[in-house]
Amino acid sequence: MGSLEQNGLRTKSDGGLRPVSAGGLRPVSDGPMAADASGSGFFATRADWLVNWGRKNSLWPMPLGLSCCGIELMAMIGPKFDLARFGAEAARFTPRQCDLLIVAGTLTWKMATAARTIYDQMPDPKWVIAMGVCSSSGGMYDSYAVVQGIDSIMPVDVYVPGCPPRPDAVIDAILKLQKKIEREAPLAKLLGSGVPERDETGTGKLVFQPNHGIAKGVLDKHPHDPKGKLGLSDPQPRKTEIK
Amino acid sequence: MTSNDTRPEAGGAAGPQPDGAPAAPRWAAALSGLEYKQLVGADGMATLEVAREHLHALLAALKERAGFAMCTLVTAVDHYPKAPRFALTHQLLSLEHNERLRVRCWLREGDEHAPSCADLWPGANWSERECFDMFGIRFDAHPDLRRLLLPQGYDHHPLRKEFPHAGIEPDRLYRQWDKQRRAGWNAEEGATR
Ligand code: SF4
């Protein structure tokens, strides 16, 4: 264990190599040999840090450019904004080689099955960025054909607002994601340190919230008969309950 | 009702042109022997109104003999609560003569099917699929009548007027799909163990 320190992996002056604790799960220990507050030992902390360092600086994005946001995504990967500066320029067009899914655009229900398949085909560990308001919340498409936020069908790590978000905003999302990856404990199971493996803060759970969570009846007025004078009130109320 | 409304009960411009009107249109000769009514649409476009039984013969004659080589659109208009309810509309274009023509066919609710014209214009295939998707109008003898834009198995036809303004999301379908998929995986996993 001491050899890690001798190899220069951690010195007091080397601030850049210290794990970040940014309000996360893992307070950083002070002494090199001390166990941190979460109970994981020095070696586990260092090894986790090393793995995280590798992961966060070599994110391979799977670009899922579904509509207009895809254009900004291309700009982001292109030379002007240059995602290569953050180690995330190696976009692969097969989910099997990727660990970062960037959903850029309007996800329709017809496409939802394909998108979920892509997510499932990505090997663990994997992260998801919802780029643009469409994928974050359905955006301006309050429509029966559009998924109202991709967190209806997959967990999301970072949401990027904007229509479309500028490439800088998405780069910011990638930096935030890197911070998040720093707080994970990939070797927890292997080393038995008892720390949760994934940092679940802010991770969208698979929660269905149909119709934006708007109560049944609020939007059920008939478009051609909002006052109910023609008796055109809705024969098919929205199905809000999901089993 | 506006004066240029071409619905059957509106009267107006229905029927052949009276004496003194300009000469019969170019396609009149090609359509001799077929039953149809000639109208002028609200936008001034020549419109032929035809019963469902004669629709396919009329479209074939227009294509083969009157030079309408292109069917730009097949769609419908929902006139709920009037009856007949659906106006199935074919928009034709003759590149040769630089002419456009509309063919309209009224369909009653509960009996909304019509002959497909995908055999005449292959491009009408998807147009008819979209029309089926949005209005639930079935096209007889269509080679592949599936929904075009919405997921298979969705229960509603969104451009019908009874469809709620706020929409009905197909998330139930998605859940079902997800469940079936997972069941398949689990079975596979069980088999390999
Ligand atoms: S958020 Fe705006 S730019 Fe992005 S896909 Fe939606 S509509 Fe297009």
State the main characteristics:
heterodimer, A: 243 residues, alpha/beta, Rossmann fold, 2 domains, 4-stranded parallel beta sheet, 7 helices, globular, disordered N terminus, B: 193 residues, Beta Polymerase, domain 2, 5-stranded mixed beta sheet, two-stranded parallel ribbon, 7 strands, 21% strand, elongated, binds iron/sulfur cluster
User: In the CATH scheme, what's the topology name of chain B?
Assistant: Beta Polymerase, domain 2
Radius of gyration of chain B: 21 Å
Instruction: Give the SSE order of chain B as H and E letters.
Output: EEHEEEEHEH
Shape of chain B: elongated
Structural description of this entry:
The complex is a heterodimer of chains A (243) and B (193). Chain A is α/β, with parallel strands linked by helices. Chain A has 7 helices and 4 strands; from the N terminus they run ααβαβαβαβαα. Chain A has 2 domains: 1-49, no CATH class; 56-190, Rossmann fold (3-Layer(aba) Sandwich), CATH 3.40.50.12280. Chain A has a 4-stranded parallel β-sheet. In chain A, strand 3, helix 5 and strand 4 form a beta-alpha-beta unit. The model of chain A is unreliable at 1-37, 199-219 and 233-243 (pLDDT under 50). With 193 residues, chain B is an alpha/beta fold. Helix content of chain B is 25%, strand content 21%. Chain B has 3 helices and 7 strands. In chain B, the strands form 2 sheets. Chain B has a 5-stranded mixed β-sheet with strand order 1-2-5-4-3. A two-stranded parallel sheet of chain B has the order 6-7. In chain B, a hairpin with a 7-residue loop joins strand 3 and strand 4 (86-94). At the A-B interface, helix 4 of A face helix 3 of B. The site of iron/sulfur cluster has 11 residues of chain A, from helix 5.
